[in-house]
Amino acid sequence: MPKQNYLLDACALLAFYDSEKGADVVRELLKSAERGEITLSMNAANLIEVYYDRIREVGSENADETIRNIYEDSPISIIEELTPDIVREASYFKATGKMSFADTILLATARCTGATVVTCDHVELEPVERQGQIPFLWIRPQF
């Protein structure tokens, strides 16, 4: 039986780093991935969001350390290639919905890899969940 595959949205990883509500859910996913029970990934386009947020919040040096730790010491696999399938799917999401470019990459990556999206972005992503095409794990309820 294949492992459950989870795909992190930037807001979920930022909730973890900022100890916001839902950080415990992300922490448990990280632990499960470290034990090899699940796969945990993130598209590099969404990691850019984490990086620039960390620059704003904690400065460039600490942001660099965060990104280095994600690449070198975390169980998160970074998906760096925008395959033709991801490009096609992202274009579809951008053309048919009002969402950010990064969210289109997130959704396209989830669809192409069969991953469950881990997020707290109810505003942009709940309409997609209602379509039933991509599974979601909400780390906290909508405020």
Overall tally of domains = 1
Radius of gyration from CA coordinates = 14 Å
| Arithmetic mean pLDDT | 95
* Gap from first CA to last CA: 36 Å
Query: Architecture, according to CATH?
Result: 3-Layer(aba) Sandwich
Specify the CATH class. Alpha Beta
Percent helix range: 55-70%
Secondary-structure element order, N to C: EHHEHHEHHEHE
Largest sheet: 5 strands, parallel
CATH superfamily, by name, is 5'-nuclease
Low-confidence stretches: none
Number of discrete helical segments: 7
CATH topology: Rossmann fold
Largest sheet: spatial strand order: 3-2-1-4-5
Structural class: alpha/beta
Number of strand segments: 5
Task: Name the beta content range.
Answer: 15-25%
Write the layout of secondary structure elements.
Elements: E1 4-8, H1 10-17, H2 23-34, E2 38-43, H3 44-58, H4 60-73, E3 76-79, H5 84-96, H6 101-113, E4 116-119, H7 122-131, E5 136-138
Helix pairs in contact: 1-2, 1-3, 3-4, 5-6
Give an overview in words:
With 143 residues, this protein is α/β, with parallel strands linked by helices. The protein has a single domain (4-138), classed as 3-Layer(aba) Sandwich (Rossmann fold), CATH 3.40.50. 59% of the residues lie in helices and 15% in strands. It has 7 helices and 5 strands. It has helices at residues 10-17, 23-34, 44-58, 60-73, 84-96, 101-113, 122-131; strands at 4-8, 38-43, 76-79, 116-119, 136-138. It has a 5-stranded parallel sheet. Helix 7 (122-131) links the parallel strand 4 and strand 5. The longest helix has 15 residues, at 44-58. The protein is globular and about 40 Å long. The model has no long low-confidence stretch (mean pLDDT 95).
